[in-house]
Amino acid sequence: MVIKVRPASVYEDVRTLVGPKAPGANVCWCLSYRIPAKLNNELRGPARGEYVAELCRADPPPGVIAYDGEEAVGWAAVAPRADTSFARSRKIPHVDDLPVWSLWCLRVRPGHRKQGISHALIAGAVAFARDQGAPAIEAYPLDNGDARVDLTMAYAGIRRNFERAGFTHAADTTSVLAGHPRVVMRLDLR
User: Fold this and answer.
1) What span, in angstroms and rounded, lies between the C-alpha atoms of 104 and 153?
2) Whole-model pTM above 0.85?
């Protein structure tokens, strides 16, 4: 298996990875950290998908997708922190004034897990941010040690995987997800 990671500019592939099974469902679409809470609550059903379709046509697109051949098998959300709710977060601190990018969601499709795709997604998100001129990239993964993480809450990633990718611990947070504290992990891209 050869995994290629490309910018998430193909809406159908993003829909496959983060969209709902039923078109009218109000699933996340990986918008909850990307857009203001008011807009996130107002966008219902198909309007959420339409919003994501616009993001896929934007420059830069909303993240990266991992492909096994032509099959979309993984997703990573990455964008300038200033364009996300992390810019205003009281629980996840700013380390400094550097205009960092945030990597906040990793998703690997069932049937493709445990094959290194999340590692490829992290590397692809780092390359994408670097190509966009980001001076650094941050992630806010779970600091779970060796404890198991519920798959529905594993979207933030786990600290160990970011350490393997060269990220270092930059700050503690007061954010807790699935019973595990989250930490700020950072990789300097300069």
Assistant:
1) 12
2) yes
